[in-house]
Amino acid sequence: MSPAAARTWRQSPARVRIQRDYGAGFRWLELDLPADFEAPVAGQFVQLLLPPPSPVLLPRPMSVAGAVRRGRALTLGFLYAPVGTGTRALTALEPGAGVSVTGPLGHGYPLERPGTPVLVAGGRGVAPLLMAADALAKRRRAVEFVFGARTKSLLAGLADARERVTRRGGRLHVATDDGSRGFHGNVVELLEKLAPKLPPPVVVHACGPHPMLSAVARWATARGAEAWLAMESVMACGTGVCRGCPLPRSGEARDRVLAEGAASGAAALKGNPDWAMCCTDGPVFEARDLDWERVE
Ligand SMILES: Cc1cc2nc3c(=O)[nH]c(=O)nc-3n(C[C@H](O)[C@H](O)[C@H](O)COP(=O)(O)OP(=O)(O)OC[C@H]3O[C@@H](n4cnc5c(N)ncnc54)[C@H](O)[C@@H]3O)c2cc1C
Ligand code: FES
Fold it and tell me: Given the CA of residue 64, which atom of ligand 1 is nearest to it?
């Protein structure tokens, strides 16, 4: 589990500030929240509940891509893909429309880990890493940002990533599977070339499709590097209640959960040792905490 502290969540009304096309079929959404809504850290997420009449009953989980304090309000930014009923309905919300936001939820990236931070984004997985780049820039830490997609037209967010990364002397590295932009290959192949040139230890923070995260996890484990991976699962509550977002723990993590349960005398409160909940144990997990053979 990510050591970045879990924080207290709340449900708040929010208003759409900006809703616009972001390229490659993605959307950029900004919501204004009351000032007392706790600012999320990079890697945390919120649950967005559409206003009635809504075509979906449950809220939809969304990573936070940006958080800015504006006077008495907090503005959160989201980069999303309209893939189904809920996210397509989200695209119809005009500035001023109301949404209910629950958060901040889950554990974020442990950006304070010593070493060279390497942010690895695949496709829309760039969302939480834009925020991570901002946070590292505020801490005056240069980052290496590896951004990959199948082809150059799918690199939505490239300009935002470049702007954030170069602010503190960091570097952006682009990879496309078809070679249409940057390195010809995937992000793990690029990581393999880049990592030996960086001051050790390399600490990877990644987000993207699960097959990409699985490859990053295997790469990091084989080289003894840390990798923190933002996972997704279909979610209902987002707060650990419904037990509907399981991810398979590794044997090492299972033993640790059992030992912690035995030591505290409250094994039942530690949950199921075989399954982590993506919403409360994650969504950011260290590579060694999940069983990548069984991650879907
Ligand atoms: C922690 C977390 C952070 C997320 N951050 C982002 C983000 O920053 N930007 C973004 O665009 N999306 C993000 N997602 C995914 C987003 O929540 C789903 O795409 C959304 O819930 C789909 O809702 P829908 O009603 O549009 O689709 P539905 O009609 O419910 O489903 C459409 C299709 O999407 C699949 N689906 C639903 N939820 C997920 C999921 N979580 N992962 C993969 N497939 C899913 C369904 O199985 C179905 O095939 C995140 C998910 C999680 C768990
Ligand atoms: S979504 Fe309900 S426990 Fe994770």
Answer: 8
Residues 97 and 123 in one domain: no
Question: From the CB of 258, is ligand 1 less than 6 Å away?
Answer: no
Give the CATH number for residue 125: 3.40.50.80
What's the confidence (pLDDT) of residue 267? 58
Query: What's the domain range around 252?
Result: 246-277
- The verdict on the CB of residue 80 being under 6 Å from ligand 1 is yes
* Cβ of 85 less than 6 Å from ligand 1: yes
Pocket test for ligand 1, best of 48, 49, 62 (most atoms within 8 A of CB): 62
* Distance between CA atoms of residues 127 and 129, nearest Å: 5
Asked if 92 and 130 sit in the same domain, the reply is no
- Total Cβ atoms within 10 A of residue 54: 14
In a domain, 2, yes or no: no
Q: Same domain, yes or no, for 131 and 191?
A: yes
Q: Is 83 in the pocket of ligand 2 (CB under 6 A)?
A: no
Query: Sign of torsion, CA 82 9 277 125?
Result: positive
Percent above pLDDT 70 for the chain: 96
- Tell me: do 94 and 63 sit in the same domain: yes
Q: Which of 65, 56, 54 is nearest to 31 (CA)?
A: 65
What is the count of structural domains for the chain?
3
Indicate if ligand 1 lies below 6 Å from the C-beta of 16: no
Mean pLDDT across the stretch 58-85?
95
Q: How do residues 187-228 score in pLDDT, each as one tens digit?
A: 999 999 999 999 999 999 999 999 999 999 999 999 999 999
Is the domain of 69 the same as that of 148?
no
Partners of 122 in the β-ladder: 148
Residue 180 pLDDT more than 80?
A: yes
Which residue's alpha carbon is at the smallest distance from atom 8 of ligand 1? Answer: 63
